[in-house]
């Protein structure tokens, strides 16, 4: 074989391998207008093997997501042009990004602010100044859940059906649109119907034992799950057991 042709083929193979390796790395979109924090986050994330994209305001973030959807978004609460809360709402309204993992990064420390962010659709939140070890742990947990290859099969309870291979959920034939955390929460309930789980047990099972998440986070996602799966006059299948926790059950709440 011609030496020049062989060299070209080897170069093409190396280039293809390099591109494949690059594409295998999760893409994180940092939405933040504080340049020093962007630099810090980019440095640490790239060091850990992530690809990084940036947006300095809310509108630019939505444009970046539309052009090249990331695997995860780190979203600052306070942004110019459009707030992080509104960006999160827009992400959840669009079918193509409804399940995109979002972590809110905020300097706000009040409990009601954290709950508001979760109610808007964020999967998690972390306070400034950012603890990189905690942030990386939360990111990896979210990416594991959103990118995990589903086990083939179907889970069913009452009139709810979950197709694990297609990652789809239906109730009475109606498609249900769930965020990644709500999907995992419902999947866990479907695997253990009628059993009551405490908030701590749900945190360990759905978020992971190594992730520090406040118990109130479970309450927020339970409310979101209820809203997603229940349409009156359908039976509310998520039962709240006072002082004990939650269960997927057909018994009255």
Explain what you see.
By secondary structure, the chain is an alpha/beta fold. It folds into two domains: 144 residues, Response regulator (Rossmann fold), CATH 3.40.50; 95 residues, Arc Repressor Mutant, subunit A (Orthogonal Bundle). 46% of the residues lie in helices and 19% in strands. The strands form three sheets. It has a five-stranded parallel sheet, sandwiched between helices. It has a four-stranded antiparallel sheet with strand order 6-7-8-9, with helices on one face. Strands 10-11 form a two-stranded antiparallel ribbon. α7 crosses α9. The termini are far apart. The N terminus is likely disordered.
Q: Which helices and strands appear, and what pairs or packs with what?
A:
Layout: H1 3-24, E1 27-31, H2 35-47, E2 51-55, H3 58-67, E3 72-76, H4 84-93, E4 102-106, H5 111-120, E5 124-127, H6 132-147, E6 154-157, E7 160-163, E8 168-171, E9 174-176, H7 180-191, H8 199-207, H9 216-229, E10 238-241, E11 245-248
Question: What features would you highlight for this structure?
Answer:
disordered N terminus; 5-stranded parallel beta sheet; Rossmann fold; alpha/beta; 253 residues; 9 helices; 4-stranded antiparallel beta sheet; Arc Repressor Mutant, subunit A
């Amino acid at each position: 074989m011609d030496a020049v042709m062989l060299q070209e083929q080897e170069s093409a193979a190396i280039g293809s391998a390099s591109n494949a390796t690059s594409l295998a790395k999760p893409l994180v979109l940092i939405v933040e207008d504080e340049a020093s924090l962007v630099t810090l986050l980019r440095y640490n994330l790239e060091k850990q093997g992530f690809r990084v994209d940036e947006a300095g305001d809310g509108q630019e973030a939505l444009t970046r997501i539309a052009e090249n959807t990331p695997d995860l978004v780190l979203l600052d609460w306070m942004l110019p042009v459009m707030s992080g809360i509104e960006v999160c709402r827009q992400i959840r309204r669009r079918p193509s990004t409804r399940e995109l993992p979002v972590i809110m990064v905020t300097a706000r420390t009040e409990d009601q602010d954290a709950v508001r962010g979760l109610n808007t659709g964020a999967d998690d939140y972390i306070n400034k100044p950012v603890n990189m070890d905690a942030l990386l742990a939360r990111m990896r947990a979210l990416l594991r859940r959103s990118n995990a290859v589903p086990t083939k099969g179907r889970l069913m309870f009452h009139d709810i059906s979950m197709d694990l291979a297609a990652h789809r959920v239906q109730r009475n034939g109606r498609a249900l649109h769930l965020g990644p955390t709500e999907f995992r929460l419902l999947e866990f309930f479907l695997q253990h119907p009628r059993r009551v789980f405490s908030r701590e047990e749900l945190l360990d099972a759905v978020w992971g034992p190594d992730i520090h998440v406040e118990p109130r986070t479970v309450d927020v996602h339970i409310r979101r799950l209820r809203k997603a799966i229940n349409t009156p006059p359908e039976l509310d299948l998520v039962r709240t057991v006072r002082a004990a926790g939650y269960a997927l059950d057909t018994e009255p709440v």
